[in-house]
Amino acid sequence: MNIDRVRANREGISTAQIGSEVRTAIYGAEASKFKTADDEYPIQVRYAEPYRSDIDAIVNAPLTFRDATGAVRQIPIGSVADVTYGTTYGGIKRKDVKRVITISSNVLNGFTGPDVVANIQQALKAFPTPAGYTIKMGGAQENQKETSDFLPLAGLGALALIFLILVTQFNSFSKPVIILTEVIFSVIGVMLGLAITGMNISIVMTGVGIIALAGIVVKNGILLVEFTDMLRAQGMPLREAIILAGRTRLNPVILTATAAILGLIPLAIGLNIDFYELFNSGNPHFFIGGESVVFWGPLAWTIIFGLSFATIITLVVVPVMYLLSETLKGKITGKNPDHVATLSEEVDSEEIHAASPRVLV
């Protein structure tokens, strides 16, 4: 509706009054509320269906106003406005002070969001974008991009904190590095598992699973390294200490990894049991799958693949790296790696050195 501003100003009518009258005719205005004991409902007053769908009826609707003399007058809307037909938008939406038009759609069964986004981005390359306009993906794709940008920082932060704690615990630089190599093994295991099974990578849940693995798999390395240090502190040679530590910690490492893997299997396959009906009627409504497995499945399988591969590799690679590290350290410092002085030995040696007479030549 195009308002004749000169005529409306002469009559003392504002554009807001005209717009309000048209909106009331089509959409209605709240006249009162109908209250019940539990709730209240607004009462909307508007034109009946035949009239609010008729352009002529709306244009000829009376516009009631008070003129400059204070008298109440009525004139038809058509006397201060006319109607033209065209294509436009029902409203203007903005984001970051820029006008935006949002096109959205659901994803049909048999397709995934990333696959659809990839096809859209491929089609947009051949789409002639006018000057001054930009096209970008929003919604779930935008949130996924923000999450994928944040996950590497979170992973590096987690590794830095783990490394700092291990350095303070072992008072060494090489041993935390040996332990943190398990994180690399776990990532390799995740990629191998996904490649062999043909599963799709979920940027968010797979990334969260890899970060969670960083805190899980280092536990096995800590068990091996710490127990080896304890045996060496008791006077056992380096190679024998490594062999005994691996043999002794074999069962705890395998049992803890197996328990974690078996505990994640129901989450990975979407095992569902209705315990209420199981105890009430004896029918557990047992089934596998469902909507939960779509969300939690990638996280569970990521931890399962990474933990399985890292556990097997840890039992072989960590002792070998420990042996090579201590051997190389002994060659550099000139100390025998098979001998690690205990606290009592250090104290005794200091006392003997202090008590021995000094001879000057």
TrEMBL record:
Record Gene3D superfamilies: Multidrug efflux transporter AcrB pore domain (3.30.70.1440), Multidrug efflux transporter AcrB TolC docking domain, DN and DC subdomains (3.30.2090.10), Multidrug efflux transporter AcrB transmembrane domain (1.20.1640.10)
Pfam family, one: ACR_tran
Keywords recorded for this protein, A-Z: Membrane, Transmembrane, Transmembrane helix
SUPFAM superfamilies: Multidrug efflux transporter AcrB TolC docking domain, DN and DC subdomains (SSF82714), Multidrug efflux transporter AcrB transmembrane domain (SSF82866)
Protein name: Efflux RND transporter permease subunit
Residues that span the membrane, as ranges: 150-170, 177-197, 203-228, 249-273, 293-324
Domain of life of the native organism: Bacteria
Keyword Nucleotidyltransferase attached: no
